[in-house]
Prior knowledge:
40% strand; globular; mainly beta; 35 strands; 8 helices; 10-stranded mixed beta sheet; 10-stranded antiparallel beta sheet; single chain
Amino acid sequence: MATTLKLKLFLLLSLYIFSIVSSHRPHPLDPLTPSEFTQVGNIVHKLYPSSKLNITLQYVGLDEPDKPAILLWLSKPKSKPPPRRAFVIARLDKQSHEIIVDLSTHAILSDKVYNGHGYPLLTYEEQLAAMELPQTYKPFIESIEKRGLNLSELKSKRVLKVLCFYVDGTVNLYVRPVEGITLVVDIDEMKIVEYYDRFIVPVPKAEGTEYRESKLEPPFGPRLNGATLVYPDGPGFKIRGHTISWASWKFHLGFDVRAGPIISLASIYDLEKQKYRRVLCRGFISEMFVPYMDPSEEWYYKSYFDSGEYGFGLSAVSLKPFADCPANAVFLDAYFSSNDGTPAKISNAFCIFENHAGNIMWRHTESGIPRKVFTEVRPEVSLVVRMVATVGNYDYIIDWEFKPSGSIKLGVGISGVLDVKGVIYTHKDQIKKNAHGTLLAENTIGVYHDHFLTYYLDLDVDGKANSFVKNNLETIKVTNPSSPRKSYWTVVSETAKTESDARIQFGLKQAELIVVNPNKKTNVGNNVGYRLIPGSVAHPLMSYNDYLQIRGAFSNNHVWVTPYNKSEKWTGGLYDDQSHGDDTLAIWSLRNRKIENKDIVLWYTIGFHHVPCQEDFPVMPTFGVGFELRPTNFFDSNPVLKTRPPYIILHCGVVNKGVQ
């Protein structure tokens, strides 16, 4: 019976996956295709034919059309789309070239050499080459031998300063660091230019670090019950190319090697007004800043810009059906350019699924009417777009969740393996000075660190001219002697006129933050808007003049608002690797531009301070952070009042059709 049911479910899934992914006409925001990557590679190599073996393509992505051109095309969808172009950062003769390629004319539109600080995204090929260099470096081999380690079991990770790990007895790479050795690699020359062997400490043990199910030994925890969803009416969403329609939502899903998933042109259908209304023009994770809190010689420099140095898209992994995503998920592939210009594929990079989590969309029980009780409940179903990026030791589960009520929930689940430090200690009582972390196992310290994610949110709330409003909640003392009350709170609204007015550090003041359209009103006269409902609040604890914090100065405030500028996408700068912090959101915002009733971008940083604990070892259970964009006077009333409940399968052959 179970086997037959599984087979039927598989056939149903196969049929509806085939039916919902249909053909479409190209969209101006579609990511580059494999053939376009090949075309770009050929054009760039033709530009530098004598240097074909020396030029590397560090970044190749869509050069998105100017926003007015996209909006014009949307208003006239049968018109000719904006020109299709690619933006390339190429490394040639130790210089970074910014190249724009016109794909329709097969021509180079511009080629500019970058002369500022910092370097572009690291490629897979560079990282692999740097990892292999120490294996043939004589001083390194001697250092390994004097530690009594087997060179064949040694692996290295990270370019520029290469970290070394010992994998004898485990595949859990990051929990067996070889401390005391520092290798500095010149990537352009691909050679070791500095080498130090300062001290020897024991390599953490392999015992207790296994995480593969097939290798684990009893006793085991309880097996969790499975669950399967069946769609009696078929799936609730459609995919045409990269455009997804579900319930009242319609949006475009893109992919970029740096940002990973990009959500564009998210609009929701207003049942009362009988039209789609735009909410979000473009949104993505602009940067993930992870600084470590150990000032020692081997650790002081450790701060990672996971998006700008390694790329969330470049680090995307193939999702496992029935594990990373539920049984009802549909999968999409993604493509990127290798450093020689040939296209590479990430199978199952995205999954899209309807989420039945048992949540309640709205409910009310009315028992105040004598001898009568009325109960109305609507179960909530949402749509989730998911991608997982494994950036070194950490796995980031990136979710965009769309709700029928108009809310968008953005979340990141953090799992994977801690970046640990090898030490001499086997028990906490032996630690007499600051170890800069938690002793997790013998000879193993989990170093304190931060995670700060900055989102780029180009909100277009019912139009692109928006304002940023702080609804400050202020306490008012009652002076009227006739009232028994001593105080109350009220809302005092403040519209930010310039960028400096919009910088927010949470915890200093209680306020609701809303992006409004001052040119659109509800039926009773309120400005239509969308509210930011923040998630966990963490402030940077490093000094603002610390080199790491200068590079990550965009995390100094939780909220920034800037006028839309196509070139301002990456909050840590276009060249994040070894940057000096002179091209960040914190620098752009010093211009203090006007933002009232303008096309504006909201930048929101969510983060947490990570104090490792033993439960995080050897693999960390997923820890989630997130926030919500919620309609606030956007609709004239509850937009899901008339939403009908889904059909529910109670058991095989019986369907509960819910309240009609």
